[in-house]
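Annotated sample (chain length 487).
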Amino acid sequence: MQLSGDLLFIKINALVVRLVEDTLSPGERSELESLLVENPVARRLYVERMQEDACLRWLCAEDFADAVAPVLTLPDRPAARLDRRSMRIVSGGLLASIVALVIWAQFFNTPRNPANAGGSTIATTSPGGSSSADARSAQNREVVATITATNGVEWAGAAGRLLSRCAVGDRMRLQTGSAELTFDVGVQVTVFGPADFEITSPTSVRCRKGRITTLVDKRGRGFSIETPSAKVVDLGTQFGLSISDEGETEVVVFQGMVDLSYGSHAVAGDISKRRMEQGEALLLKNSGQLERVFSVQRNNFMRSDVNRGRGTAGPIIGDLRDNIRDAGRVKSYQIVHGGLEEDALAFVDRAHQWNGLDSGGMPSVLAGADYIMPFNDDKFVSDLQLKVGILRPANLYVFLDKNMAAPEWLRKSFSNTGLGIGLDCAKTEWHKDHSLGVGAGNSIDFEFSIWKRVVNEPGTVILGGLEPPKVRSQGFNMYGIAAVPLD
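Output written by the structure step:
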């Protein structure tokens, strides 16, 4: 089973939640076992999530406030060295000990509630501001999700706790930080404060302001988010929304497709619809007009434990604009602050990944760099101009596919460092034999040379296009772009 990055994270997270709650179907159990046997990253995620679940449930119990949970580690190793019998022993033994601890702690410390078998329900507020418990009892509410992670969260009013179960009608307000909710239907929703959102059904959320990102597996197809000016229906698998205080909505599709509805919800004939695909981003204005979003800061929509970057000085790359797409062509570049690491996504329109050429990893000068995810298809556009906004003095790098000749603009303004980086290509309709590896030096399909330019002050740097090689049998790719602060 080939899953990578955030999709693997949500898959393991969803399966573990159902495993701990004893709602895992036989088919899902088989799927989890296969992932754990075949994928070392999946094994690490599994252990971390199970460990986190046990620790949090233990530490949240009053009698165990000062307890320290045991740390368990499972080293990465080839799947061939971990047979199915061994995996059952590891997973079964770990699960038995953790579930026993959880049940014992919850039995003595958690009020028993038939409507709350999966954990305590969140204390929330109704839209009018009063406690939801005043409006209806917990027993009468449909419990549909679990708070599976928080990061620096500060709640406004009633607070949610880790592993609290959430019900239809729960309205939550975050002043700062982020909260992750995993819905029982197979959807992970991450909300970044300040935000105001409400669970409106087992498959829908209303967000009045803030940023929200969803990851959806096949069971959650059709999950929707409503904002003051739009409704977005997910067709699989990942999208983000940003709702301003004024109600304007920015929609970004990271993977898969969504259906966007906007306009007057009071008059059916006034509603407009648009399908958005991977790599597209739009801003819906209060006037009802749609505007292209040239570039998106990907960190604004992703889990904050990923892509921490170099220090706290903030992004180096501010924005990016091109000369080839008008307002009707809504493809959007993605900027990742501090995100250049092994297996980092390289392009918006492909699942290819950057990796070190060998087991030594990427050149140290690139570790934790800001980088841009361009469109691989732009390798065909010879008259391309990219205007890169640099916010502070930096070393700007361009990665050039070694199957491509260095264009004049690159030779004139950049110098070849003699260093290299690799591209690990995902399977596509053109390259059906490709598959993604994990880690430095694994499954490298193309080598890139690294070129450098020193940018001494903030401003705009213009990059050009490429001339496709005359012989294309070897394949070729769009260049990459990265930046690190000057020492």
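Annotation: The chain has three domains: 5-110, 119-293, 304-485.
Annotation: The chain is about 20% helix and 35% strand.
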